[in-house]
Design a protein that fits this description.
The complex is a heterodimer of chains A (about 325) and B (about 450). In chain A, strand 9 and strand 10 form a beta hairpin. Chain A is elongated. Helices cover about 50% and strands about 15% of the residues of chain A. Chain A has a five-stranded antiparallel beta sheet, with no helix packed on it. Chain A has a five-stranded mixed beta sheet with strand order 4-3-5-6-8, with no helix packed on it. With about 325 residues, chain A is α+β, with helices and mostly antiparallel strands. By secondary structure, chain B is α+β, with helices and mostly antiparallel strands. Chain B has two domains: about 210 residues, Thrombin, subunit H; about 200 residues, Protein Transport Mog1p, Chain A. In chain B, about 20% of the residues lie in helices and about 40% in strands. Chain B contains eight helices and 24 strands. The longest helix of chain B has 23 residues. The chains are: A alpha+beta (about 325), B alpha+beta (about 450). At the A-B interface, helix 6, strand 11 and helix 7 of A face helix 6, strand 20, strand 21 and helix 8 of B.
Amino acid sequence: MIWIEILSRHRDIAARFRIPGPEARIGRGYDNDVILDDPYVAAQHLRVFRDETGQLVAEDLGSANGMFLDGDKSRLARVVIDGKQPIRIGQTFLRVRETGHAVERERVATPERPMVPILLALVLGLTIVIVEELDVWLGQTAEPRISLYLTPLLGVGLIVLVWVGGWALLCRILSGRSHFLRNLLIALAGVLAFSLYNEFGRFAGFAWTWPLAASYEYVALWSILAGVCFFHLRQVGQRRLVLKGVVVATLLATAIAVQTLQRSEAFSDSGRQFTARRLLPPEFRLVPLRDENAFFGEIENLKAKLDADRRQARPDEAGR
Amino acid sequence: MTVSAARIAGALGLLVAIAAIDGAARAAPDVPSAAEGIYASAPPRLLQIRTLVADAGRQTSIGSGFLVSADGLAITNYHVVSQVALEPKTYRLEYAAADGSHGEVTLLGVDLPNDLAIVRLDKHDAPFFAFDKAAMDGSIPKGERLYSMGNPLDLGFTIIEGTYNGLAAHSYNDRIHFTGALNPGMSGGPTVTADGLVVGINVATRRGGQLISFLVPARFAADLLQRVREHEVGQDLHAEIARQLAAWRSGLYKSFGDDGFRAAAMGPYQAPETVSPWFDCWAQTNASATPKPRASVNTTTCSSDTSLFVAADLNTGTIQVNHSYVKSIDLNQFQFATLLTQLSQPRLVGGGPFRKWYTPERCNEDFVSTALAADHPPLRVIWCAQAYREFEGLYDVALIAVTQDHGSEALVSRMSLQAVGYDDAIALGKRFLEAVKAGK
């Protein structure tokens, strides 16, 4: 007895045929055991039989388009069946298995849903909510309003849901399983990373008088987004990880470059820095006080920069 | 004082709609004849000065002017001819006299601080206006009747009555306070006594006031005339404008620095307040705000009356000193810091469009200690500056200091200096920071 399995483009099983005899014929014609409606398949394309040593063998019956092993470009007239490697004829992938083909052990069913990832998702979600709400609360200087607390939650919640839904759908289409929980974990980790970075940038800008962390926040945002995308892509399929990494890294570099360019253009249009100056309670200062003279020394150095800006802005002055 | 940049007529502010309020004085029987007499002799020496786009030959702005010599020299406002002074290749000047004659005008000299300009007409042996002796030494009595002439809104030459009210208070540059309806287009026209002698030159009106107008005292015009005759005014007008700006600002900031600061109590802090008389100070509080504020903010703002017209889109030279004493009512320390963040943004706003006049802002921010003494609180200081593209050695600077000794009360002090020399700004900045103290 032989089993013929027709596979989809993603090598999932689309149909399975049980051939009771010792030989199976495959083709587009109605005299075959397995009929394929693929216009690139010959009327009599493939014969599967047991050779003199008892091995199952697939043989091309003289088709125009030939027979190939999946992922291989060399045309073969005869293939020894191993039960694993799919065969391509025309545009159809198929796999031949014997009754004795060894299958994996059954998975042990856990009685409930897996607790660890669910817990992890809950913890991540809760941390995000806490950070966001703290941010709103500590930034509130006027009359407290409930809507101010709800709006960011709703926004972030919706975005995460749509994002994760999209990736889950993609996973489902391309790999058969949606992996919703894993995709959710990846997205939540990304959101949390960004909101923590945000807080860090604000803290660094005040405590160490180090505004770069906040002004290059967009670099962090794009990097985190790229990381998240990469892990989602990994969920979609484990294959071609290097290619995926390269694609994501290229997009990341492009996004950062474009935004940097945009910023510098906006800066030369408005002359205003993007730095958001934020104050925190005085106890958060981590650097010693500067001496007044040292501070004004630095300010004197700014003059050279301003004058250089001026010369750059007016290259035509000499000809005036 | 507002020197407006209205496209029509350069400067005379916003009183367009109320030009008709001149009624009461008409009752006296002798006044109309005085005005009639003055106006009858005015036409050949009273001018409309037009700025034209050189290529198109159409006017872009109009003002007034008047002859002051037999050889064709005339006085007008700088802001009437500023386009020609700054961009002589794009614009040119023309005059039309009240007697119907017209012709080309050459710009000879300007006086930026007093908003005056001298032009030459191709007109010889015409009658001209003489300056009033009493006006030159400032001995005109308040309430004397004056007559202002010009061509408001291009509606034709007009004579307007008003009264002399001495020099305007709180003004850095001397300006005569004239109670009369000056309108756009009359800028640069003469204001004369009943004898027809020039007391001042129409220059501006106050927005939001009624009949509050300002004149440049005649002595500045006489000085400028003298300087032009002696060729003391440079030929390269752009360089001359830069030179006058530099001289004016160094005088202004020297005077500001010499007057110095006095300590004003704000809560437990002492804030430096300027002593110069040409500042206008106002206080502001949010105590009565609705909804009830969560931190009390009491602010005093002192602005100098030193705005200088450089171009239609550039007024500069204003100094502002601003202190806010902020005390939390029910804000926690983080929320309070957020409020301070809002109050301490640099907002380095120049008096003109950025790309045309300024270089990008450069800022520096740090924790600063002005002294080890206990009465000097630690400060978070932000310094932002930008240079002027057109004028070397001229900068706009904003200096903000936030006291860092308490989590729930603070003094936010701000000093904005427009068109300042960099070294002047640093010296003033140091003094300003050192004068921020804690404890009474």
